[in-house]
Design goal:
Rossmann fold, Dehydroquinate synthase-like, alpha domain, alpha/beta, about 375 residues, homodimer, 6-stranded parallel β-sheet, globular, two-stranded antiparallel sheet
């Protein structure tokens, strides 16, 4: 086990009706909230109204910023910062999935920064202060509701970059599984693919950390079990609740205890696909990971073998796991080949150029042009 | 899954040499520390000196309170409160195992209470303020280094009571596995029995919470594996590190996600033994739990069966697990019968009287005089 720090200041309220506590937390933070939402589905399913009701009940005024894209761009963040400043907001209420919450984190630090938030997201400038954030999660996927990370895109430079600051842990996150009932099947699946990929990124780090490794296999096993059920029966509470908690647990620090923090090379690879083709992040991940496992097979065989034994049964082996994982993705209709998301072999050079420009590599499993092409050859 | 809150404000620094960061955290809290220790072993193994060095390096003055007993009593806490007040302490540095840290938590709230701390520990008065606590853990066992709980004893009334307050989460806990090298074999074993029992208390709650339940089986499996190794080879870093992290993870909230909080009936039973006979808590637990499992077998069979399959192998069943658990306790010399700790059958009525006086019962598995006697009949 490596030295590590276990610390997560987010308070997470999980279960039916938890949003009824939002007002009291808002009141402790101040009286002026900027509400951030995505394309507007929360306006139609009652979630936005429920939050507004909470804010009104404690006298918190609010202004609404809508239109965050599923691959969120820094320009929307900058626009929201202007509105938040003009409104003199003292808190952010993010309602949505990963893209909305990641944008809220960028708004939180952008609020105190002169200039574009891209200065911070691209790593040039370190955030020194942040507005507090309340999150109402509506999509099980990224885990951003209980961590310090955010991913923001810059279409002009062709970059999609992860950044983090311990200032942007949400103060309180409200996770009601019923709020995910209306997520369409495809985005439910991409969210499941995302949480599985987060687990893999940490699991395959070669450092031996037995409890973290066992827990990673538990998450994958339960994601297979409840993932199928949630896709098949979107209003089954137990399935939605399990997937929701798994997505948080996969990236709230639990899986990195005793480790350095994970590889994240597949995520880097996927960010290039998202920035070039605007495909859903989880869809990209379920395409890349099987190829990555095959290319790095000899280095990760023992880890794949343990994963197989603990998710499929004691008689299964490393190769069985890759087959089962691809099969699982197919059953939930998360893609496993680039053609399924409309990316054609003729684009190989264009993809490789973006990967090179972004210097995509893992922390433990080095990638380079040869590896990029080897992986891509398995994705057609 | 039940509604739950996931929140743990303690910052935990884990690994070799982490105490070298203590000074910087002390400085943020103020400049006057009361150091609390137990019977003095940390004076001889260099740990106390290392902490003093850290405090001196940042100009924190300190006063030492020593002599906390392994079953800590409220009188020592009250005495320490007087010293802390006279010294005008602004922080507590607890160096030791569960008894020292539990006492530190009581000092932290007693500091702001007029009257004996027993008023708070016995539940009559709610704590409103607390001194901040830094913990240097020297024994893997109770998990108190990353939770809001404490257990304090009153010999006059024959009570040993658990209490909690979210004011007493340690601010920062320093866990260096090498600091546990000098723990004698028997206390190493009792600590392992304790962490396993904490896992059981939460695991056997009948509420279905799949990730928490799987994780509980992981902790027990790894405690069996690394527990034997740590007892056999006290200076093996990986074994000590694993046991140390398992003991924290077993009671820092992770296993209660999706649950109500656990049964805790066996702990209640053990507190009566500790208060009557001053036996080590973990030793009492490894005696009582097998008896409890046999008495409540029909209600917990499916949970025992899952535990068996995930710790022993797919062909094992509920009864196999009880046998394996008792066998494990024997291999690490943690007792499984009352005679091993010098408690004789002639004392049955005396024990039952204390259990009745303390109204010992579980949250989910009800105990009464008949059950007490049935369990005791299996402990001789």
């Amino acid at each position: 086990m490596k030295n590590f720090i276990s610390n997560n200041p987010t308070k997470l309220l999980f279960g039916k009706g938890v949003v009824s506590k939002l007002g009291s937390f808002s009141k402790r933070l101040g009286s002026k909230a900027v509400i951030i939402i995505g394309k507007g589905s929360v306006k139609h399913n009652g979630i936005l109204d429920a939050v507004k009701e909470q804010l009104k009940s404690v006298g918190t005024e609010y202004v609404l910023f809508e239109g965050i894209k599923s691959n969120p761009i820094y320009q929307d963040v900058d626009a929201c910062v202007s509105i938040a400043r003009e409104f003199q907001a003292d808190q952010i209420v993010a309602i949505g999935g990963g893209s909305v919450i990641d944008s809220a984190k960028a708004v939180a630090v952008g609020f105190f920064h002169d200039g574009s938030v891209w200065d911070i997201c691209s790593g040039g400038i370190r955030a020194k202060e942040a507005l507090p954030i309340l999150c109402v999660l509506t999509l099980a996927a990224t885990g951003t509701e209980m961590n310090m990370f955010s991913v923001i895109q810059n279409d002009e430079t062709g970059q999609k970059l992860g950044w983090g600051s311990d200032l942007v842990y949400p103060k309180v996150s409200f996770l009601d599984p019923e709020f995910t009932y209306s997520v369409p099947k495809n985005y439910t699946s991409y969210g499941i693919s995302d949480l599985i990929a987060h687990t893999f990124e940490q699991y395959f780090e070669p450092t031996k950390a037995p409890l973290s490794d066992y827990m990673a296999t538990d998450i994958v096993r339960l994601a297979f079990e409840y993932g199928r059920k949630a896709v098949d029966n979107p209003t089954d509470y137990e399935s939605r609740a399990n997937i929701l908690w798994l997505s948080t647990a996969a990236l709230n620090g639990s899986l990195s205890a005793g480790k350095t923090g994970g590889d994240w090379g597949v995520h880097g690879f996927e960010h290039s696909l998202s920035v070039l083709y605007d495909i859903p992040h989880g869809a990209g991940l379920s395409i890349i990971y099987p190829a990555w496992m095959k290319v790095y097979f000899s280095e990760i065989e023992s880890k794949l073998d343990l994963m197989a034994k603990r998710t499929l049964g004691e008689n299964s082996n490393a190769k069985d796991f890759i087959v089962a994982y691809e099969y699982f993705s197919k059953t939930i209709n998360s893609p496993t080949r680039l053609s399924e998301v409309g990316i054609l072999k003729a684009d190989e050079d264009k993809i490789v150029e973006n990967l090179k420009m972004n210097k995509v590599s893992g922390m433990f499993f080095e990638q380079n042009e040869e590896k990029y092409r080897e992986m891509l050859s398995l994705m057609w």
